[in-house]
Write a structure and sequence with these properties.
Elements: E1 8-14, H1 18-29, E2 37-43, H2 50-56, E3 63-68, H3 74-84, E4 89-94, E5 98-99, H4 103-113, E6 119-128, E7 154-156, E8 169-172, H5 173-179, H6 197-207, E9 212-224, H7 231-248, H8 251-254, E10 260-261, E11 264-265, H9 266-281, H10 288-295, H11 297-310, E12 329-335, H12 339-350, E13 357-364, H13 370-375, E14 381-385, H14 390-400, E15 405-408, E16 414-415, H15 419-429, E17 435-443, H16 464-470, E18 480-483, H17 484-489, H18 501-512, E19 515-526, H19 536-549, H20 557-588, H21 591-604, H22 606-623, H23 629-641, E20 647-648, E21 651-652
Parallel strand pairs: 1-2, 1-4, 2-3, 6-9, 12-13, 12-15, 13-14, 17-19
Antiparallel strand pairs: 4-8, 5-9, 6-8, 7-9, 10-11, 15-18, 16-19, 17-18, 20-21
Helix pairs in contact: 1-2, 7-11, 9-10, 9-11, 16-18, 16-20, 19-20, 20-21, 20-23, 21-22
Length: 659
């Protein structure tokens, strides 16, 4: 249907292969299903006629988009395509392969048949330009980027850890972004080979609970260059593969019962010795394919050892390949003049179980002893910057974070001991969600619990945007945990909105991705006179500005009803607080401050001011004469001190005050 969004985004990355690119694009543009897909061709700094080839295919049934990625490398190019994709499914193919005529439809159908699968792939079959040598059977297809696992579908998980080839690979976009995109430290650059970006990503996706599927109905064909049929090419490929594999630090491969030397497990040296024996002595009885496979253990091991010697300092398994026992989370604490509380916030972050959480404190130009307090915790990463506001401080921490997940903990709040574990577990069980949120316990400056009833969302995780319009159920950023990749993609916190930037951030995420509500108590939310949220006029002004920004996202009458209800609720909440503070100012004789608050009310919520004045006028008329200001203040004080003016068990009791 014209104008309908595509159901599949195809990412095709290219570098100086204009001739083969033309054949690859022709196969895609002429296939069935082209009208319901989009093709994103990512030019990775080509210097030949690539741009002209891409432009020649525009205007056809298949929507073609031309992207240019200046950073050299296959992962950089693929990631640029992923972030530009508009469909829920993203497929990858190469500039030197030709897809079968039904490939687009087959990709969409495969993931529809296997809703439990986060990714799917199929056959990459050769087109021999010259006959292959006798030793080159299917066991030597990896250097040629070929794959054929048979004619039956296979589930890919830890029990069947097959690696699908990136020339014929499709993924659900939400799962792909949740896993963190393609790693750039194991990517192919230019015409290099032996890299492991496909393998690394699929291991990482399995490690966080995703599964894939091999579907033989997905078929592409790859012409095989005669230069790739030589033993020399295969030895060179396995050497580079060993280097890239060493950078992956796969936990299962790193295990050794006989120790390691120079950071290399002992079994790698044994494999190298076996490869030397095979190369020197050969084998009179083994088939040529098997004999050469034994020999190839030598260049792989040599590349592995060479990489480890060059990079000996980090002997821990690669973060992306870790299992679920790991908590890859960063707690980011923005701080401005909160020396009295920041130590407690830091200690609550380090008290997380298990103790594998990174803690970053961003000192936003504090003029008190914040830096001295933080430096008393050597394990904290301290970032110091001139005062730029809480949004800039949070964004600085986000840019420096290394965890897959991030928690933004205000410097006067405290995490409960299992907060990070609860959040990470929730996001692993809900890989489609950008964030997972729970409840906050309000406390006063001394840490005493305050009575409060927190709103809880009722609907589906995918409908959180509408619910957030009506009520911000994430009381403080520390009550939620976010996927770092998606927080970065959303642009972080907008410094225009000051104290309401967190609310704007939640809305931005919820408009694009689900927000999971686990409902567990995870943070102590401190309320005191110096906290930003105590400035009611500023909070209302910024919150209303954020709400105005959301109007561009409203589509249905339901959206607009939720938006109007939200605006009214925010005005009522902060308006009531401003009226109370105005009354307090009058009682203390602080007339200028009371007048300033009244002007804020007049600008932001005139109805609340009008109701207040009408109430006073009614009481004055009832008394038969104008009531002196002192008596009004005394009446307000009595009403404030009355237990009937407070909420008890979720209900309020009316109190009549006679003046």
């Amino acid at each position: 249907m014209p104008g309908s969004p595509p159901n599949l985004s195809i990412v095709l990355c290219t570098y100086n292969r204009a001739a083969s690119l033309a054949r690859a694009m022709a196969a895609l543009c002429g296939g069935s299903g082209a009208a319901r897909a989009e093709l994103l061709v990512v030019d990775n700094n080509s210097t030949d006629g690539t741009a002209d080839v891409i432009r020649s295919f525009t205007g056809g049934r298949l929507t073609v988009r031309y992207l240019r990625e200046p950073r050299q490398g296959l992962s950089f190019a693929r990631n640029a395509g992923i972030l530009a994709a508009s469909a829920p499914l993203v497929a990858f193919t190469d500039d030197d392969v030709e897809a079968a005529p039904d490939w687009i439809d087959a990709v969409v159908s495969a993931l529809a048949r296997h809703p439990e699968a986060a990714w799917a792939g199929g056959k990459v079959l050769p087109r021999w330009t010259t006959p292959p040598p006798a030793w080159l059977d299917r066991s030597h297809w990896a250097p040629l980027a070929l794959a054929d696992y048979g004619d039956g579908a296979l589930v890919i998980d830890d029990s069947t850890p097959l690696c699908l080839v990136g020339a014929n690979l499709a993924m659900r976009r939400e799962a792909l972004i949740a896993a963190g995109l393609f790693a750039t430290d194991v990517q192919r650059i230019g015409d290099g080979g032996g890299t492991t970006e496909d393998h690394e990503l699929q291991i990482r996706m399995r490690s966080i609970g995703f599964r894939g599927v091999y579907d033989p109905s997905l078929v592409v064909h790859a012409p095989v260059d005669p230069e790739r049929l030589s033993r020399r090419f295969h030895r060179r490929w396995h050497y580079q593969h060993g280097r890239s594999f060493a950078r992956m630090r796969v936990p299962d491969f790193e295990q050794t019962s006989r120790g390691r030397w120079l950071g290399v497990p002992a079994h790698v040296y044994r494999a190298a010795a076996d490869g030397v024996a095979a190369a020197v002595c050969g084998s009179a009885t083994a088939p040529p394919s098997r004999a050469f496979a034994r020999e190839l253990a030598l260049p792989f091991s040599a590349g592995f050892i060479r990489e480890r010697i060059a990079q000996p300092t980090n002997l821990q398994p690669r973060a992306g390949c870790q299992r679920d026992t790991r908590l890859a989370a960063s707690v980011i604490i923005p701080c401005y003049n909160q020396a009295a509380f920041v130590g407690q916030a830091i200690e609550s972050a380090f008290a997380q179980s298990p103790r594998t959480t990174e803690v970053i404190v961003v000192d936003d130009g504090s003029t008190d002893s914040t830096a001295d307090v933080v430096q008393g915790y050597p394990a904290v990463r301290l970032i110091r910057q001139p005062n730029a506001g809480v949004s800039a401080a949070r964004n600085a921490g986000l840019a420096a974070a290394r965890g897959d997940f991030v928690v933004f903990l205000d410097a006067d709040d405290e995490l409960l001991p299992d907060a990070v574990e609860i959040g990470v577990d929730a996001l692993r069980r809900h890989p489609e969600a950008a964030a997972a949120a729970g409840r906050a316990l309000p406390i006063d400056a001394q840490g005493r619990a305050l009575a409060a009833v927190q709103p809880e969302p009722r609907g589906d995780d995918c409908a959180r945007f509408i619910e957030l319009l009506g009520s911000n159920f994430i009381w403080t950023p520390g009550a939620a945990i976010f996927r770092r990749a998606l927080a970065l993609r959303a642009g972080g916190f907008d410094s225009r909105w000051s104290g309401a930037a967190d609310y704007a951030f939640y809305l931005q995420l919820a408009a694009e991705w689900p927000i999971h509500w686990h409902g567990r108590l995870v943070v102590r939310y401190r309320q005191h006179p110096d906290s930003m949220s105590s400035n009611d006029a500023a909070m209302l002004r910024n919150t209303l500005a954020v709400m105005r920004e959301q109007r561009r996202r409203l589509r249905s009458p339901e959206d607009w009803r939720a938006w109007r209800a939200g605006v009214a609720a925010w005005r009522a909440w902060y308006g009531a607080r401003l009226v109370e503070r105005c009354a307090d100012d009058v009682r203390r004789g602080e007339w200028s401050r009371s007048m300033a608050r009244a002007m804020d009310l007049l600008a932001l919520h005139p109805l609340a001011l009008a109701r207040r004045l009408r109430g006073r006028l009614a009481r004055s008329l009832h008394a038969g004469a104008a009531t002196p200001a002192a008596e009004i203040s005394a009446a307000i004080a009595r009403a404030s001190e009355s237990p009937g003016n407070r909420c008890a068990n979720g209900t309020s009791v009316g109190v009549q005050t006679n003046v």
